[in-house]
Amino acid sequence: MYVVSFYLDGEPTAVGSFTVADGRASGDIQGSNVPTTIEACVSPDGQVGFRLVQGNDGDDIGLAIAIDTGVMEGTYSFGNAELNIEGIVEGSRDNRIDEDSHSDFDGTYDAQFTTAGELVSTAVFEVNNSGLDGTITTTSGDTMPAQGYVTSDGLLVVTGTSGALLDTMAEAHIDQDSFEASGAYRFGDEPGAFTAQRRQP
């Protein structure tokens, strides 16, 4: 499974996930004026060919995405504007389990989820041997468990929650010097910014 984030002028506009198997990619993207479901073909050299992509308002969306050594990246266009997809994807939960575990990013991370500059929820994540577990707490006080993983080059992915936050998904890149992470998340069809900071050992 690939987790992908869409950005416009540095601000997250959508987050989605794709499953790639047998030369086909399928999944969903949630956010402003983007498809809710998507299907594509994947060529042997990693080019992703989207057959039909249409936004929620009926506008055509152009996608140019390639997969290279586990990273999915490219651009998309909406109307007359061109938007960049930033360093989006690496690995999956299953691949992470199959790989040798690593401890470079182990520790406790304090995270924040914001939408349009407003705090939506906070979280505390424990990273241990590339696995991530923690709790997300909304501003109304509701708490939900969350799971995910961290890849060997510092991509932090939250891939599963439960209860009211079931549709939450997040990805962020961890700086290997400061151990600060920044990226995007979605809650249902609402995209926002996701940041985290590792506590001092």
Keywords:
mainly beta; Lipocalin; 61% strand; globular; 16 strands; 8-stranded antiparallel β-sheet; 8-stranded antiparallel beta barrel; 201 residues
Q: How would you describe this structure to a colleague?
A:
It is globular and about 45 Å long. The protein is an all-beta fold and 201 residues long. The strands form 2 sheets. Strands 1-2-3-4-5-6-7-8 form an 8-stranded antiparallel β-sheet, with no helix packed on it. Helices cover 3% and strands 61% of the residues. Mean pLDDT is 75; it is low at 86-98. The chain is built from 1 helix and 16 strands. It has 2 domains: 2-89, Beta Barrel (Lipocalin); 95-198, Beta Barrel (Lipocalin), CATH 2.40.128.
| Helical/strand content category | mainly beta
Segments where pLDDT lies below 50 for 5+ residues?
86-98
What is the averaged pLDDT score?
Answer: 75
Examine the secondary-structure arrangement and name the CATH architecture of the largest domain. Answer: Beta Barrel
Helix content: under 10%
Q: Strands, helices and their partners?
A:
Elements: E1 2-8, E2 11-21, E3 24-31, E4 38-42, E5 47-50, E6 61-68, E7 71-78, E8 81-85, H1 93-98, E9 107-115, E10 118-128, E11 131-138, E12 143-150, E13 155-161, E14 168-174, E15 180-187, E16 190-198
